[in-house]
């Protein structure tokens, strides 16, 4: 039995892919101590892992709220306190290896101090090559120099000159939640990357969603995710205008979005949170921001969809899926209700989209899932 230190970036895009992995590790006898924030406590504890809470919220990608310090600045200012708190909460435990979110900023500290193998969980994978090559273009905030000096003085660990380099931490083993078929051949090509298929796992999410309202109805599911839900509120009006009064039921997630100034059509069911895997069992077609978790769920479950990428790795994911003939990717800057309607009808009616989705879905299943990921981990640490 191995003892595992799991250092996450506690955002949905980085935690959700790991829940099934941790469950599989625990099932195989490993003891996992998982650091995150309270939002994910219930999910983590349901896997059998031991939940631990960071000193501060390390969701570095959450939208900055008015009057609140930028999460990156908080992390840099509190760096040594955060690191010391993790060491304090795990004092006396002899870990065998570390699994970490790729952008966990203190990976190098724990790697060098504990002197144990590290495994990177790639919540984002497309575009990493380009990101690393263009690192010099990203500014390094002045707070980073202070953090870097403090860490060097306390732990004798020298972090990279550029702050952005601390956001891409690859391990001796790198788990990619996709398939070799889906990822372009010129990306993630060395043998440290292992493709294990998408993060599809029964998350046992509790929900009071009125599924009975979907019986015998054509269902359109719309979600712009959690991080980008407020990226462009005008998109919600496009959705309303496109499908209001149509003979469909539209289920729409609007995470932390204030829709009070919109008139929501009668055929829309809008919720702050939607149990995505459950709703896909009732969905005829979807509209997505093309985040990794969402696009993987849709492809794995063979649900036709239209992509409206908004940022981060979404343009890359949408472009790749479209290149494989499995979706239509639309530009949010020029999107109109008519354009959206046409795209939805096309992916529904043209059988080539379904056929090409199945090729990707088959490659996902062949990748082996979480049992294969655990096998790769055991092979690596042994």
TrEMBL record:
The keyword Glycosyltransferase applies. Coiled coil: none annotated. InterPro entries: UDP-glycosyltransferase, UDP_glucos_trans, UDPGT_MGT-like. Keywords: Glycosyltransferase, Transferase. One of its GO terms (molecular function) is hexosyltransferase activity. The keyword Glycosyltransferase applies. Belongs to the UDP-glycosyltransferase family. NCBIfam families: MGT. This is Glycosyl transferase. It comes from Chitinophaga silvisoli. The lineage of its organism: Bacteria, Pseudomonadati, Bacteroidota, Chitinophagia, Chitinophagales.
């Amino acid at each position: 039995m191995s003892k595992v230190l799991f250092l996450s970036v506690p955002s949905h895009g980085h935690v959700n892919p790991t829940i099934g992995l941790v469950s599989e590790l625990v099932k195989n006898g490993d003891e996992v101590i998982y650091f995150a924030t309270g939002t994910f406590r219930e999910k983590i504890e349901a896997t059998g892992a031991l939940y631990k809470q960071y000193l501060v919220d390390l969701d570095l990608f959450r939208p900055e709220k008015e009057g609140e310090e930028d999460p990156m600045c908080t992390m840099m200012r509190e760096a040594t306190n955060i690191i010391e708190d993790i060491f304090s909460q795990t004092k006396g435990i002899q870990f065998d290896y570390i699994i970490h979110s790729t952008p966990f900023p203190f990976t190098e500290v724990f790697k060098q101090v504990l002197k144990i193998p590290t495994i990177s969980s790639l919540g984002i994978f497309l575009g990493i090559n380009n990101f690393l090559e263009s690192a010099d273009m990203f500014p390094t905030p002045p707070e980073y120099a202070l953090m870097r000096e403090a860490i060097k003085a306390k732990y004798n660990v020298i972090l990279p000159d550029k702050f952005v380099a601390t956001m891409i931490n690859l391990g001796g083993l790198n788990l990619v939640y996709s398939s070799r078929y889906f990822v372009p051949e010129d990306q993630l090509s060395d043998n440290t990357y292992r493709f294990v298929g998408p993060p599809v796992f029964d998350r046992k999410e509790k929900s009071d969603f009125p599924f009975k309202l979907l019986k015998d109805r054509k269902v359109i599911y719309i979600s712009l995710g959690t991080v980008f839900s407020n990226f462009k509120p005008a998109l919600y009006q496009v959705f309303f205008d496109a499908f209001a009064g149509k003979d469909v039921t539209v289920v729409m997630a609007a995470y932390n979005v204030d829709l009070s100034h919109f008139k929501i059509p009668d055929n829309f069911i809008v919720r702050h949170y939607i149990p995505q895997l459950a709703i896909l069992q009732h969905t005829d077609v979807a509209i997505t921001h093309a985040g990794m978790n969402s696009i993987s769920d849709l492809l794995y479950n063979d649900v036709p969809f239209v992509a409206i990428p908004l940022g981060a790795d979404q343009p890359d994911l949408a472009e790749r899926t479209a290149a494989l003939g499995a979706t239509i990717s639309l530009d949010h800057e020029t999107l109109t209700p008519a354009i959206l309607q046409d795209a939805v009808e096309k992916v529904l009616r043209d059988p080539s989209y379904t056929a090409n989705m199945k090729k990707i879905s088959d490659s996902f299943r062949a990748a082996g899932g979480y049992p294969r990921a655990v096998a790769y981990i055991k092979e690596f640490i042994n």
